[in-house]
Amino acid sequence: MATKHKCPDGLPEWLLTFGDLMSILVVFFVLLISFSIQDTEKLQIVSGSVKDAFGIRQEEQRAGVVERDGNPERDYVKRLSLAENEDNTEFSADRNDENESQGPDANTFKIASNEIEEANRFSLAAATLRQAWQELPDITSISENLILQETDEGLNILIADQEGRSMFPEGSKYPYEITRKAVAAIAPVLAQLPNQIRISGHTAAGSQYPNPRYGKWELSADRANVLRAVLEEFGLNSDRIHSVVGQADAEPFFPNNPYLNANQRVSILIMSEEPPVPPELRP
Hints:
This protein has 283 residues and is α+β, with helices and mostly antiparallel strands.
């Protein structure tokens, strides 16, 4: 006579049958997976689902790489270059650091230049500028008006009108106090960089100027020059200023709609410059 299993006190008898059924189903699906064509990605998904079902979950924490003179929070590596190595072959008398092939074909193939270092030249500067702004809670309300963008010319810092908020009073060359604080905060950061700084003022199309002798060209130039004075007041050497220009509405930020207020801005460009000595040149 078969032995009848009893459920623990207080539990219904059908729960034992239900548990047996679930065990049989798990074995059935495991067998199906084992006899099917293996797909690594799908197998990992199924494995994770089974672990979650049985309450097994693996947690991983990755340690960040802290650089001595850089900010680890970036999309790409800060520096990437070929490491010095010995001769590529034991038969070669000349160094062949630019090639990967061996033997008689040692000079056949070339390694393409890596552009990661060029693409991230200003990544640390951008992170430091954002940090300088984040440390000033007073300028949180204009965070959308402070824009950083990397271009072919360098790192562009835009002080722009948008979100219904202006950075300068209407028709005035002097910024609001909150705008002045935001510009003053980045002056020490710019002072530590070797690059030249170009400052340009821009206005939106369609603006009205009651004084016929003081129009868009004068206003855009004066606003750029006032921000230059703020930067120098808070630590930027005047020798670092490449130029201060007024562009009026000649270069709108939104060419499709030059009448937008966001076209009214001051641009502080950290100019991209080639190093005076090639980085691969060694004494």
